[in-house]
Amino acid sequence: MPTGAYSIAEFCHAHRLSIAFFYVLQKRGEGPTVMKVGKRTLVSDEAARHWRERMESAAALQSKVEMGDRK
């Protein structure tokens, strides 16, 4: 059942990431946009979707670059 937002632990579990790697991504500026709600840090469903789209685009671009190197 969609909740509208993930806790950091829920986001990591859903995307098969460790919490430590989540913070590595955040530090690099490659993680999802987060929001503060009171003391909680959450990732909205929309931010998670947008993050997945960025990761997929980056992977596709990297694949094209690698394939170009093989020609």
Describe the protein.
The chain is α+β, with helices and mostly antiparallel strands and 71 residues long. The chain has a single domain, classed as Multidrug-efflux Transporter Regulator, Chain: A, Domain 2. 59% of the residues lie in helices and 15% in strands. It is built from 3 helices and 3 strands; from the N terminus they run E-H-H-E-E-H. It has helices at 8-14, 19-28, 45-69; strands at residues 5-7, 35-37, 40-44. Strands 1-3-2 form a 3-stranded antiparallel β-sheet. The termini are far apart.
Profile the largest sheet. Answer: 3 strands, antiparallel
The domain tally reads 1
* CATH architecture identity: Orthogonal Bundle
How much helicity do the residues have?
55-70%
Low-confidence stretches: none
State the end-to-end distance.
46 Å
Q: How many β strands by DSSP?
A: 3
Strand fraction = 15-25%
The SSE string, one letter per element, is EHHEEH
Topology:
Elements: E1 5-7, H1 8-14, H2 19-28, E2 35-37, E3 40-44, H3 45-69
Antiparallel strand pairs: 1-3, 2-3
Short description:
The chain is 59% helix and 15% strand.
Features of this protein?
single chain; 71 residues; alpha+beta; Multidrug-efflux Transporter Regulator, Chain: A, Domain 2; three-stranded antiparallel β-sheet; 3 helices; 59% helix
